[in-house]
Amino acid sequence: MTEHLSSNVVNYLVWRYLQEAGYAKAALALVHDWNDEPDSLPFADKVQTHTLLRMLQDGLWLDDMRAAASNGTEERRYQFGHDHGRPFARYNGDARRRKTLSNRRVRRDEVNGTAADGDAPVRKRKKGSNEAHARVNGDVEMETNGAPAESEAIVSDVDSAVEEEVAPLVTTLSLGESSVRQTEKLMDLAPQTTFLRIDEPGATVVHTEWSPTEPQLLLTAGESLLRIYHIPNSTQPQTDGPAQPVSRDLDIGLNHPTVTAVAWTLPGEAVIGTLEDMTADSGEKMTKGKLYHLSEGGLQTRLVTAVLGSVFSLRYNASANLLLTVCSTDVNSRICVWREIKQEPLYNAQTEHPVFAAEWMSDSTFVVAGYGILEVYEITSENKLVVQKSFTTSTHWENLRYDAVCGIIACSSSSDEAHPQLGLILPTDTEIRTHEFASGEDITGLEFQPIANPASHDAETPRLLATSSDSGFWTVQFWNAKKPFENVQRFSSGSVIEIAFSPDGYLLAAAGTDTVTFWDPEAGVSKAKWKPADNDEQKWDTTLPDARDTELDHLLRWDADGKKLAYKLGNQVAIINFWSMNSTAQKV
C-alpha cells in the first residue's frame, strides 16, 4: 500500500528541503504560514536528510521505467528539458542581470600560506559562456535514478497571509544523517566596510596580500598595478563609516608589467614576480620574467634576477628566513631557495614538468606540485637540495596545502581533468590517495582549518580540511584528512568561488557570486554574512561587461589579527571589518 501523504508531511518535506538547500527566508515564511514547531510533528524524527530529493528522484526513475516498459505507447509524464533557466543567487537581488558562466576556473593558490600566484603560459583563464549550470546556487539537478512512488497532489489545508517582515533564517548543515537548524539572526557585516576601487585604464587587480607582521598594510598587484594601502583598524562603529585608507603606488621601473606572484618576507619587505612585454631587435614580441625585492615599505626596489618563464609560486619561511621560488614554462620548472634575497640562490633544482604550487613542510623540507608531478624536496645536512619523495602521478595538480599539525599533504586538480580530484598524502604514504568529484564540479578552494594551539590536537580529533565547489549540491565540504575520504559535514551554500579560514580557525569565509557567508565549522551553522548594502551599489559592481572574456575573479584574504577580511571581486576590494565580532569570545 502506498504511503499516505498529508499536507503536514508534504509541508514538512518542503520545509526541510528549503533549509537544506539554503533558502532560509522561504523556510521561515512557510513556518509562519503553517506550523511554528515543525519538528514537533510525530513523524519528524523519521525524516532523513534529502528525503524530498530522494522521493523526487525515485518518482522520475519510475516514470522513466514506466515509459520504457510501454514500448513507445506512453511518454514520460515529467519532462523539464535541459534548459532550467539561469541559476538564482541567494542574497543577491541583482543576480539575473549578471552573466552566468559555466567555466569559472581561475587559479587560486596561496602566497605565504594565503596568497595567489600568477598565471602560466600553459594555463589560460577560460572564457565563460552564457550556458547555465542546472546545479549551481542551490538549483539541484535531478537525475532519473532514484526515490518514492507517485502520489496525488495535496492541497494545503489552510490558507493564510505571510507576514511582511520575515527575519532571516540561517541555512542548515548536513552532519552525517542529522541536520542542524539555527534560528538566530545572522550578523550583517556590510555597514562597516571600506571599499577600494582601481579605475586606472589597463590596470587589473590579481593579488591582494596583507602583511603578516603589519596587519594595516595591504599590497595590491596585478596587470599594470603595484600599490600598497595603509588601512586603519576599526575598533568600534563609526557613524560616518570606517577611516579611509591611504595608498601609494610603487614604481619598479617597468613599462606596464604584470605581477604574477607576491610574498611578504621580513617586516616592511616583500618579493614579487613580474612579466614584462618586450620587443626584440628583430621585432619579435616576447615576455620577460623578473624577480624584484621591495624594502622600506616599497620605497626601495631592487631587481634580484631575470627568470625563464613565469614566477608562479613564492613561499617565505619566517622561522628559517628562507624564500622558495618556483619559475615555470610550459614544459619545465626551476625551483630555488634564497636567503636574504641575494643575487644567487642558495640551492636550485630543475624539473621536467611545469610546477605551479609549493608549500614549506619544515625549515628544511618542502613539497611542490604541478602537471604530472608531486615531489618532496629536502635540504640535507651536506647543504644539498635533493628529492626526498617522488609520487607517481599523471594528474594536473594546481592547488596544494600542507598541514604541519598532522604532517598531511592535500592537493586538488585543475578543471582540465574529466573528473576533478582531491588528493591526500599521509606521513607514511607512498602513493597519492585520490577522491573523484563529479564532472564539472571544479574544486575552487582547499584549506586546512588553522589550530591556534597545535599541542591541544589529539589523535582522536578529526583534522578538518575544507573544499569548495562552484557547482553541485554540496558546495562547501569538510573532510577528516586523517581518514581519507571521511566526510565530516557539508553545506549547501550556492556557488562558492573562494574560501578562507580566519587565523584562529573559528570562521570559514565562503565567497559566492557577490556575497560572503561566514560559517562556524565546529557548530555547523553560519554566524554572519556580508553583502553590499543597497546604498553601496555605486561602490560595488557585480556586472560583467560584454567586452570582458573572463569571469570576475574572487579572492579572500584575512589579515594576521583576524580583524579584517579583504574580498576582491574583479577590480574592486571590500575591506570587511570585524570590530563587532570577536570570534574568540563567541566560541562555545
TrEMBL record:
Origin, by domain of life?
Eukaryota
CC per GO annotation: Set3 complex
Locations listed in the record: Nucleus
Alphabetically list the UniProt keywords: Nucleus, Repeat, WD repeat
The primary location reported for this protein is nucleus
Q: Give the residue ranges for region: Disordered.
A: 106-133
Which SUPFAM superfamilies does the entry link to?
WD40 repeat-like (SSF50978)
A Pfam family cross-referenced in the UniProt record is: WD40
Provide any one GO MF term from the record: transcription corepressor activity
Query: Alphabetically, which GO biological process terms does the record hold?
Result: regulation of transcription by RNA polymerase II
Q: What name does UniProt use for this protein?
A: LisH domain-containing protein
